[in-house]
Amino acid sequence: MKTNGHQIDMNETVISIRNLYKSFGEKHVLQGIDLDLHKGENVVVLGRSGTGKSVLIKIIIGLLKPDAGTVNVLGEEVDKLEDAALRALRLKVGFSFQSSALYDSMTVGENLAFPLTRNNRDMSKEQIRKTIDIVLEAIGLPGTINQLPSELSGGQKKRIGIGRTLILRPEIMLYDEPTAGLDPITSMELNKLIVSVQERFNTSSIIITHDLTCAKEVGDRVAVMDEGKFIREGKFDEVFSEKDGLIKSFYDYNFIQ
Amino acid sequence: MSSTNEKSDKPVITAKIDGFFLHFYNIAAFVGRFFREAFRPPIEWGEFVRQCYQVGYKSLALVTVTGFITGVVFTEQSRPTLSEFGVTAWLPSLVAIAVVRALAPLIAALICAGKVGSSIGAELGSMKVTEQIDAMEVSAINPFRYLVVTRVMAMTVCLPLLMFYNALIGCLGSYFDVHAHEQTSLVSFFDNAFAQITFLDYTTALTKAILYGFTIGIVSCYQGFNASQGTMGVGKAANVSVIVSMFLIFIEEVIIVHVFNSIR
User: Fold this and answer.
1) How many helices (H) and strands (E) does chain A have?
2) What is the ipTM of this complex?
3) Which residue from B47, B171, B205, B232 could staple onto B150, CB 3.0 to 4.6 Å apart?
4) Which structural domain range is residue B79 located in?
């Protein structure tokens, strides 16, 4: 299947989540989540704050353990992996944090080089520099290599955060609220970057957001989450064709914005 | 009424006891993980050297000043009593024994707990609450090996060096005071000072410094690595790192002194 200029292979599932449950004390955050991500596909998980969206992708990358259910990423069951196997899997899965999580004592160049040098210790300085230049060019910030994170704007930090994950050439990208806290113009640029990453690096992505514009721009498929469950799933236009309940409030909120 | 209270109190007490043992287990697991990770390649030599610079070189000025003042003050305080018995000639050896056996390890450790321990607690705490440690995890980097192992090793290696340096400066401070009052030469002062120091004294001091360095490193890294509750958690991590490190240093001091005195 071809969408927005990129190829989606509906026969190949890169992430498969079945019957996923997670609670923190008395708070039941995820209550039976099922989700498939196909190769080359961008799936947007939409939902209000506190509905468990970020918990979902933290379980996918193995930062949190589920209470029940299975998470299969590239053929591996994440919560059953030993440390070494989990690290090997993480090389294939990029994670972009809501806060960017850049190492504030390092320059942009050092931030990008850090995962590269730790995981490819044989790389020469020239190879590292060349890879950094390619990534900086891909994220549209070629002149920032010597800048510190404190000297960057919010949008630039998000881009560098994405660049830091891209440098390991992942097959899957997980974005946690990529446009949160950004102005509409910067958000639009970031949406374009997410689509260009998908096309240029041939990634499959899960994008966590509460931004309808982002969902419409970048998502091949949208899943709406409420109280730990998906209440609607499908193409953006299908999901938002019937505006009732939560869908209506989402639509109204974004319309007012 | 009382039975209701008993019923409602019981789970709170149980939870506190559970919490205490869970905390104790977590610390033991943290120390265990350190020993598992510390000797497994690849070792982060670059970060280890950077931490040695932070712990050792950047503490030198403070250690020099406090060591010198300790030597001078201890000599000044001891002189009146010794001169009553007409044995001011014992001043060099008295100061050397006090400095090497007790003062230098304690002073170097307390300075490092305050200066370096708080800084490690705050740095790692800040990295934890801003998700920088999680960012290492998801980039397939082992944050424990990069952040904890290097810092604990640097503290364990640098504190003995700082301790011996502190002892030397303390003796030098004492020499200046003794020289001003008793016109003793440098060679004569140090001959007298080190004549009474035994191999066991050096071993005791070295054991103390290694253990104190390891304690400060582990406590500060544990507090920082497990920080929560945003910026408040960072402050708490820095604060608790210093308090717990100092408390444990004094407990270890008592134990080591007892153990080595039983050998002596």
Assistant:
1) 9, 12
2) 0.88
3) B47
4) 44-263
